[in-house]
């Protein structure tokens, strides 16, 4: 284990992180002051429409973004060590931090594995460089644990000889073999047969719990989130707009975007009621959004929502960026009346810390 990581620090902490991509059509802002914290061992879902910035946030955790990505502002730290922002680690210390703290499970398990190498060799290499290597258990045992029966055949196989479900189980075993402190799983069941999704997800969550690894699950699947995660963070327009305990947030969503997501969920409709689609299209940002990125689609938008950026504030046991909940008295009481959300005293502390409407210099 990297001696300089702090075991009590959040495994992942982002504060006002801004990331842009340089494209032929100019800059595209993918993270627009994203703030999020994942505690050791926590199972957290990161949800949001396509393009909201989930994968960018996940890859930023290891400073593994595409070469056209630019860090414009804000901080990110992994197990207490800065990855973006002042004093950020680089070179070998960064590689050691990734090796010791981070694991990834990707959407397409077969392409995530090396097509030219048998599974046994890939699993053995997955632990190379770890000081604890000699304490590692045999790879066959790890495969049995993840529910693979014909272990010797799997170990002899090349990735293309495995089914999607088998390859994803191997991917999970490989990622957890290093005993990372944070596993980032980006749509881990999207390429797997629908009948296996639940099994794979249950396996992923239970293995993380067994080894004490935090999980950041990037997904569109709110049903899976409801069943398997403790916390949910909702992204919109490159920001985390609501973050709190999963059951509370899904049962009583506060941010109008979270409400719309939950209302659009198949099964959320009452008999005879039409499923609600979220009207409008998600934003594509080229620079900092001047107000709330959801304002053009928000049924409850206030005049200030388009012009003033809502701060990330603690409200009633969760974090929110929404003027309806953290803005003026009138708007707050309207929101409270609708949702029963009371303002948390920590709100004031948080607002003092962030400053009303503060913007990251670009
Ligand atoms: N390398 C890149 N170059 C240019 N733009 C990019 C690049 N990677 C991502 N983007 C853009 O950044 C925005 C956020 O993308 P990102 O993949 O992080 O979103 P996402 O929420 O993970 O989406 P999805 O759910 O579809 O995977 C999108 O507009 C996307 O097109």
Automatic annotation (TrEMBL):
Biased composition range(s): Basic and acidic residues: 340-355
* Localization, UniProt: Cell membrane
* Native organism: Actinomadura soli
* Biological process according to GO: peptide transport
Q: What is the lineage of its organism?
A: Bacteria, Bacillati, Actinomycetota, Actinomycetes, Streptosporangiales
Record protein name field = ABC transporter ATP-binding protein
Read off the PANTHER family from this record. Answer: ATPASE AAA-TYPE CORE DOMAIN-CONTAINING PROTEIN, OLIGOPEPTIDE TRANSPORT ATP-BINDING PROTEIN APPD
Q: Which keywords label this protein?
A: ATP-binding, Cell inner membrane, Cell membrane, Membrane, Nucleotide-binding, Translocase, Transport
Q: How does it sit in the membrane?
A: Peripheral membrane protein
* Pfam families in the cross-refs: ABC_tran, oligo_HPY
Recorded family membership:
Belongs to the ABC transporter superfamily.
Stretches assigned to the ABC transporter domain: 12-262
Q: Name one GO cellular component term.
A: plasma membrane
MF terms per GO, please? ATP binding; ATP hydrolysis activity
User: What InterPro entries does the record tag this protein with?
Assistant: AAA+_ATPase, ABC_Ni/Peptide_Import, ABC_transporter-like_ATP-bd, ABC_transporter-like_CS, Oligopep_ABC_C, P-loop_NTPase
Where do the record's region annotations for Disordered lie? 327-362
**Ranges of compositional bias, category Low complexity:** 327-339
């Amino acid at each position: 284990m990297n001696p300089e990581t702090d075991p009590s620090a959040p495994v992942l902490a982002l504060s006002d992180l801004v990331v842009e991509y340089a494209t032929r059509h100019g800059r595209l802002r993918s993270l627009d002051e994203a703030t999020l914290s994942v505690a050791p061992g926590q199972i957290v879902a990161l949800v949001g429409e396509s393009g909201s910035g989930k994968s960018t946030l996940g890859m930023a955790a290891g400073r593994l973004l595409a070469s056209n990505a630019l860090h414009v502002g804000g901080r990110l730290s992994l197990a207490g060590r800065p990855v973006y922002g002042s004093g950020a680690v680089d070179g070998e210390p960064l590689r050691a931090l990734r090796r010791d703290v981070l694991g990834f499970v990707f959407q397409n398990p077969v392409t995530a594995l090396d097509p030219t190498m048998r599974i046994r060799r890939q699993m053995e290499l997955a632990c190379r460089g770890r000081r604890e290597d000699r304490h590692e258990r045999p790879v066959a045992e790890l495969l049995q644990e993840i529910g693979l029966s014909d272990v010797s055949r799997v170990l002899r196989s090349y990735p293309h000889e495995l089914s999607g479900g088998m390859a994803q189980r191997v991917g999970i075993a490989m990622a957890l073999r290093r005993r990372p402190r944070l596993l980032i799983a980006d749509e881990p069941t999207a390429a797997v047969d629908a009948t296996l999704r639940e099994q794979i997800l249950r396996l992923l969550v239970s293995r993380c719990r067994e080894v004490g690894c935090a999980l950041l699950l990037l997904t569109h699947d709110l049903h899976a989130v409801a069943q398997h995660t403790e916390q949910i963070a909702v992204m919109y327009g490159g920001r985390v707009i609501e973050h709190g305990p999963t059951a509370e947030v899904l049962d009583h969503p506060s941010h109008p975007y979270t409400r719309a997501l939950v209302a659009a969920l198949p099964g959320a409709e009452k008999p005879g009621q039409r499923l609600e689609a979220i009207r409008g299209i998600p934003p594509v940002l080229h620079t900092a959004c001047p107000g709330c990125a959801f304002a053009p689609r928000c049924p409850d938008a206030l005049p200030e929502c388009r012009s003033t950026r809502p701060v990330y504030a603690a409200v009633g046991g969760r974090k929110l960026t929404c003027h309806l909940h953290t803005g003026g008295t009138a708007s707050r009481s309207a929101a409270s009346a609708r949702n029963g959300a009371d303002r948390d005293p920590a709100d004031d502390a948080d607002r003092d810390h962030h400053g009303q409407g503060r913007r990251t210099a670009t």
